[in-house]
Amino acid sequence: MTVRVVEGRFDPATELAAFARGRSDVGAVASFTGLVRDEHGGEPVLAMTLEHYPGMTERQLARIEAEARARWPLLDVLVIHRVGRMLPGEPIVLVATASAHRAAALEACAFLIDWLKTKAPFWKLEETPAGARWVEARASDDAAAARWER
Amino acid sequence: MRIRYFAWLKQRVGLAEEELDPPPEVTTVGRLKAWLGERHPRFAEACAAPGVVRAAVDQEFADDDRPLRGAREVAFFPPVTGG
């Protein structure tokens, strides 16, 4: 089990190569990588700054991971979320899941990113040519998270 | 009690955090919002729109009716936008 909030750049390929390495019981690894886009709502995005609530963020991520493990037979989980200022093309978040079979890995990966987006205290500030603006929460993210509610 | 503000609320209030001793009648998150609104008019403005100002008590998400008894840290922030 690994949940990490990191300030510097990270490389999803390196992280994934190390994830579940050396385990012969893992039959499926699924992953999601979120990247900074250079456009939002028709406006160029020059950079993005992620703010978080140190302590609460890690606690919420650990809780979401525990929920995923309770719902699916996962052999390993990795969540890395970057904070601070980053540029278009750079990774913001990586979620990876390992299981014996694909369904659990794929579903748990989707669950983890859906709940992370609505239940972990992070906030995005975009820099545009017109100035900085805070990203607004999207109803579609709430809907994506709600489909996993029981 | 330590009060913390995040994201654009921090900019509106002009503070990341403050140490305050609310009066005894401030017993819930909702009452604390109203009390803080008297000190920070722009916080009151933000709270006037429903669903815009979320809260956490001792790093747990909390609704307006959440009691403050024993709370050491209360945070206010807009809906989260990570991932």
Question: What does this protein look like?
Answer:
The complex is a heterodimer of chains A (150) and B (83). Chain A is built from four helices and ten strands; from the N terminus they run βαββββαβββαββα. In chain A, helix 2 (56-71) runs antiparallel to helix 3 (102-119) and helix 3 crosses helix 4 (139-146). The radius of gyration of chain A is 16 Å and the shape is globular. In chain A, the strands form three sheets. Chain A has a four-stranded mixed beta sheet with strand order 1-6-8-2, with helices on one face. Chain A has a four-stranded antiparallel beta sheet with strand order 7-5-9-10, with no helix packed on it. Chain A has a two-stranded antiparallel ribbon with strand order 3-4. In chain A, a hairpin with a 2-residue loop joins strand 3 (39-40) and strand 4 (43-44). The relative contact order of chain A is 0.24. The two termini of chain A are 24 Å apart. Chain A has 150 residues and is an alpha+beta fold. Chain B has a single domain (2-77), classed as Ubiquitin-like (UB roll), CATH 3.10.20.30. Chain B has three helices and five strands. With 83 residues, chain B is of the alpha+beta class. A five-stranded mixed beta sheet of chain B has the order 2-1-5-3-4. The chains are: A alpha+beta (150), B alpha+beta (83).
Task: Label this structure with key terms.
heterodimer; A: 150 residues; four-stranded antiparallel sheet; 33% helix; globular; B: 83 residues; Ubiquitin-like (UB roll); 31% helix; 23% strand
